[in-house]
Write a structure and sequence with these properties.
Blueprint: E1 7-11, H1 35-47, E2 52-55, H2 66-70, H3 80-90, E3 95-101, H4 107-120, E4 125-130, H5 136-139, H6 149-166, E5 173-176, H7 181-190, E6 193-196, H8 201-217, E7 223-233, H9 236-248, H10 252-263, H11 286-298, H12 303-312, E8 317-321, H13 322-334, E9 340-344, H14 350-365, H15 378-382
Parallel strand pairs: 1-2, 1-9, 2-3, 3-4, 4-5, 5-6, 6-7, 7-8, 7-9
Helix pairs in contact: 3-4, 4-6, 7-8, 10-12, 13-14
Bound molecules: flavin mononucleotide.
Length: 390
């Protein structure tokens, strides 16, 4: 029996991560704003013993063309703390994690809200401390431009110090997702859980080693959970058919702006059903452009097919049978790439139901995931110490 076990969070803002999920057969297109549906989702996650339900938050709509936003169900959501307070009453064990920004909020407000949620939920609250990357958020807070990146992290340190000063001995769990130099250092020195965004096992190992070494140098430890979109089928062919169907539902209005960003060129005039034309060099990421051009050439993809691929979801994906998904998760866990995963569902409710019905039993069969909660608080689930504030 393996000694290490996976920690699993569920990313639930938006409720499903693929931009076309709301067009998938059986989808609940209004689920981001339907409390009854969300209660059903969190109860399913709790029955499967997930560590936490995570509500990301953004203080402005995504920085994308309106035509693309109109074809996406990822634009907005319930205010996280209001939602999690309601969900605390519908559940008993699962952790409740929400994002709050250190750039645009005030420490007293954040301290009160999370301390309240922690008491209401009997120790299940977690705060994802973000400095807010989207520059449009500044415009919603009376600023004409965004606060400079490293200044945001300086403020975040002071902010967290003040918030911790307000809290007593029952501290919510601190979560962080910084990726830059300043972000990694801040996460390593302060966070108990770190959300990673590595797309390959090699990158994840490097990130893991780097951040754990920084944390150890600060006399601390932390859990690292990369985000992963998981598409599972009863057979490998079924899993890939599900993915192909979902990708085919990405509308060109949504896929093409994403493709333009990734290629570093305005692709809106390209013939959708022709092969990708030659792409001149640009000032944007060259590796991303080269990877996509090579993929299009190798697989003889049309512009439409390429836009569907990049428009759906850009991060780490796992596609296959429950055995294949479990193999991948086990390898990441046992070779120092992850302490668990933040699961992103490709569709809702089918993506969630498939994961719980197929992947969870396979992980349990291998001794990689709990069969029941051992404790009652989020700290208990994550194996974190109960802290006493001096
Ligand atoms: C799993 C995950 C969840 C995130 N959630 C949020 C969020 O809810 N709100 C937000 O503004 N940024 C969110 N981010 C972005 C990070 O906070 C951060 O801005 C980004 O990783 C860039 O890192 P940097 O600020 O160190 O450059 C998230 C990132 C990841 C990987």
């Amino acid at each position: 029996m393996p000694t290490k076990q996976l920690h699993l969070g569920a990313v639930m803002r938006p409720v499903a991560i693929h931009t076309a999920w709301w067009r998938y057969p059986g989808a609940y297109p209004d689920a981001n704003f339907n409390l009854a549906h969300i209660v059903r989702f969190i109860r399913t996650l709790e029955a499967a013993c997930f560590d936490a339900f995570f509500m990301a938050d953004h203080l402005a709509v995504m920085n994308m063309p309106v035509r693309a936003l109109q074809r996406s169900a990822t634009v907005s959501s319930f205010e996280p703390m209001t939602l999690l307070s309601a969900l605390a009453m519908a559940t008993e064990r699962i952790g409740l994690v929400a994002t709050a920004s250190t750039t645009f909020e005030e420490p007293l407000h954040v301290a009160r809200r999370f301390a309240s949620l922690d008491r209401i939920s009997n120790g299940r609250a977690g705060w994802n401390v973000v400095t807010t990357a989207n520059p449009d958020a500044a415009l919603n807070f009376g600023l004409t431009e965004h606060v400079e990146h490293d200044e945001r992290y300086r403020r975040a340190r002071d902010f967290l110090c003040v918030v911790e000063g307000f809290w007593g001995d029952a501290r919510p769990v601190i979560v962080q997702a910084g990726a830059s130099e300043a972000g990694r250092q801040f996460a390593a020195e302060t966070a108990e859980v770190i959300f990673g965004s590595s797309r390959t096992i090699d990158d994840a190992r490097l990130f893991h080693r780097d951040v754990k070494a920084r944390a150890a140098a600060a006399g601390r430890s932390c859990k690292i959970l990369p985000g992963a979109m998981v598409t599972v089928g009863r057979t490998r062919a079924e899993a890939w058919e599900k993915k192909a169907l979902l990708d085919s539902l990405v509308h060109p209005d949504s896929g093409m702006p994403n493709l333009s960003i990734r290629l570093g060129i305005d692709a809106s005039g390209f013939d959708l059903d022709a092969p990708l034309p030659d792409i001149p060099p640009s000032n944007q990421s060259q590796s991303q452009r080269d990877t996509l051009v090579a993929l299009a050439r190798r697989d003889h993809l049309t512009v439409r097919q390429l836009a569907q691929m990049v428009g759906g979801f850009g991060g780490l994906e796992m596609v296959g049978t429950a055995g294949e998904i479990a193999d991948t998760m086990q390898e990441w866990l046992e070779t120092g790439a992850a302490d668990g995963f933040n699961i992103m569902f490709p569709t809702m409710p089918t993506g969630l139901d498939d994961f719980v019905e197929l992947v969870i039993p396979e992980l349990r069969r291998r001794g990689l995931f709990r069969r029941e909660y051992e404790g009652t608080t989020l700290r208990d689930h994550l194996g974190l110490p109960r802290l006493v504030n001096d």
